[in-house]
Amino acid sequence: MLDKVKELIVEVSHFNASTKEELETFRIKYLGSKGLLKDLFAEFKNVDADLRKDFGQALNTLKKTAEEKVLEIATSLENSTEEKSIYGDLTRPAEPIELGSRHPISIVKNQIIEVFNRIGFTVSEGPEIEDDWHNFTALNLPEYHPARDMQDTFFIEQAGGKFNSDLLLRTHTSSVQVRYMEKNQPPIRTISPGRVFRNEDISARAHCIFHQVEGLYIDTNVSFADLKQTLLYFTKEMFGKSKIRLRPSYFPFTEPSAEVDIYWGLETEIDYRITKGTGWLEIMGCGMVDPNVLKNCNIDPTKYSGYAFGMGIERIAMLLYQIPDIRMFYENDKRFLEQFKSII
Ligand code: DAH
Question: In the CATH scheme, what architecture does the domain 104-340 have?
Fold first, then answer.
């Protein structure tokens, strides 16, 4: 009998239940009013007197073990259902992590940087809040120069509601040219990507905030042919198009100046629409840096010459990805942004 009780103690201490029903069956089996313990206690009087002490102790141990077991399992079942209601099924596979994507402006900016890096251009940056000198005057745009009207400017409001005409949001990244030349002597090969601001009405084609990349190359004997060759290399790498033309134009900081068109082609209906039936697309402005600008930046124009160019990143991105409206870049619509997931 004693051995049987000892076996039962081992059995009870190893018991486990994963549901409340299983636990209840166990409880009834051992501790119920018709349970095993009741029967065993009833046996007590039949046990030999010299064994009674051990038997009694064993019985008490069995009872205690069973009672503790029921309590322990009940508490743990209670906790795990609580956990379940908080965390759900803890063994389920994890939720897929949503991957973000780079913004198309960053993608295109990085591509442009990479193309120019390969031919030795470094990246330089300047402040978005500029002074009149770096944004206008040093670039051959003195006060009252009519070409200042080409770029509607946001001036910075001072305390008291007055506008400070010397402090403004840069209207182009050409201001970084000036800052770079002030600090570095030729040879200079740098591109300056950045955000620019213009007080313009927002439409499908124009925004008051957009991005530009400025390019600057200054050395001895730099010619217009060097400029054209560099731009041809760029359009080949960026768009896979190998025909460009330079149309005479005007910018105060370059002389001569030109607009760069690439031959996009007329294969599809979209090509007709975006090139207005000509096959040609304007992508940037460029020219030979005006000697006055070099002088303003302490570079000797009798020794050095150079070229500069400037393009809008949004415009390039719109062409590359056939984005019909510039406002889409700033709306943060996930359906738009998610389309750039596969591009790094
Ligand atoms: N800064 C001009 C603009 O914002 C773009 C530009 C044109 C930059 C010609 C240049 C350049 O460096 O040579 O419209």
Answer: 2-Layer Sandwich (3.30)
